[in-house]
Specification:
Layout lengths: L7 H10 L1 H8 L5 H15 L5 E4 L6 H8 L3 E6 L2 H10 L5 E5 L5 H5 L8 E5 L9 H6 L9 E7 L10 E8 L5 E8 L7 E5 L9 E5 L2 H9 L3 E7 L26 E8 L2
Parallel strand pairs: 1-2, 1-4, 2-3, 4-5
Antiparallel strand pairs: 5-11, 6-7, 8-9, 10-11
Amino acid sequence: MSDFPEHNADSIHAWRTNAEFWDEVQGDHGNHWQRTLVFPSTLELLEPRPAKLLELACGNGNFARAAAALGMSVTATDAAPELLELAQRRSHADQITWRQVDVTDSAQLTAIPGAPFDAAVCNMALMDIAELSPLFATLPRLLTPDAPFVFSVLHPAWAPGTNVRLFRERIETPDGDFIEESGVRISRYLNLGVNYGVAVVGQPQQQPYFDRTLSELFSAAFEHGWAIDGIREPSMADGPDPDRKPRLQWADIPHIPPVLVARLRHRS
């Protein structure tokens, strides 16, 4: 099961409530995760660089600004009008067009002006979207033939509903020495469904996470004619997040990827 339509309004309301907090955290250029993990892999999978890009669930517009700075013409959409307003305040590029679009609504998707686009992206948002079927079913009509759709998500193996815990422990070796080992523990993976949590500590309202397994996530795309032709699992190998408090973080386990980035193409 990959669709939870009864939670769609709740998800949008949470992002509208958290918009100003989220904008302050993201700033003009995105947080450390986006700059280090998401943007580099997304841009790599978008090569050759598209002239016209459609972004879904753009948030405060940090990726749209980065893409525009690289010469792309971007139509950036989000369901939360508050986020779009904040995005526009931070943006001065003439080649960005902003549109309020709920991607769970096929009619709103179909009405996006400027189609066909050379590529589409959705950065770190599918796990926040209650219904994926309307998006995967409608998006091919907005793209040129064989155009890529690149999306990134929290890695489904370590999604919030898995009760993920980072750990560090001291282990005695057979020869009597001690070594430190860091890793990830999860207690669930299948049948996760809807879980509530926070994207950033301190945000005003918890948001629903739609924790889909790898098979649920990709099957939702395959059922509508999409195929994978690129995938990345970037890790935090370049050092700790400067915005985080001194505590165990993903940079301490650089051999495990916290994010999954995939490129799909529609086989019509």
